[in-house]
Design brief:
- Helices cover 35% and strands 13% of the residues.
- By secondary structure, the chain is α/β, with parallel strands linked by helices.
- The chain has a single domain (19-147), classed as Aminopeptidase, CATH 3.40.630.
- Strands 1-4 form a two-stranded parallel ribbon. A two-stranded parallel sheet has the order 2-3.
- Helix 2 links the parallel strand 2 (53-56) and strand 3 (80-85).
- Helix 2 (61-73) packs across helix 4 (128-147).
- The protein is globular, with a radius of gyration of 16 Å.
Length: 149
């Protein structure tokens, strides 16, 4: 599923943004289907050639631990850092509904975050290796979730 947390109509705020994920979770709740979802993994801005993913503080702790453990197991621990930060993104709509969710994001995009949403945000700044690292980690996490039953 694809969402864009930066879908504010005016200026990003607590009530202006996250329209896609909020709409989806409202539909889940209306249908009583939220219990069918075991977990949500939100991936965002993970193509940076200097990948450094911090723990996201709002995310479900056990799910964050699982993602970071899988990264470590795969030998990607140096890209999944021990420090943490709070990020308001699409994981919040799922958390509000009681669905475990984790945000996997690299918010340090270029020197002094210079590339983020600027004319410098070009394909040459992206790394297939970073995409593979996160992809491998997500697939391993999904496998671990499936086998946890």
């Amino acid at each position: 599923m694809f969402f864009d947390g930066e879908d504010a109509l005016g200026r990003w705020s607590e009530t202006d943004g996250l329209y896609g994920s909020r709409h989806f979770t409202r539909r889940l709740a209306d249908e009583g289907a939220q219990h069918q979802i075991k977990a949500v993994i939100v991936i965002d801005m993970i193509g940076n050639s200097h990948l450094d993913i911090q723990r996201e503080r709002y995310s479900t702790p056990w799910l964050t631990d699982l993602v970071f453990a899988q990264a470590q197991r795969l030998g990607y621990g140096r890209y999944f850092l021990k420090n943490s930060r709070s990020i308001e993104d699409d994981q919040l709509a799922f958390l509000e509904l009681g669905i475990p969710a984790v945000e996997v994001i690299d918010l340090d995009y270029g020197p002094l975050n210079l590339y983020w949403q600027t004319r410098f945000d070009t394909v040459d700044k992206c790394s297939p290796a970073s995409l593979a690292i996160v992809g491998d980690t997500v697939l391993s996490t999904l496998d671990a979730l499936e086998n946890a039953d």
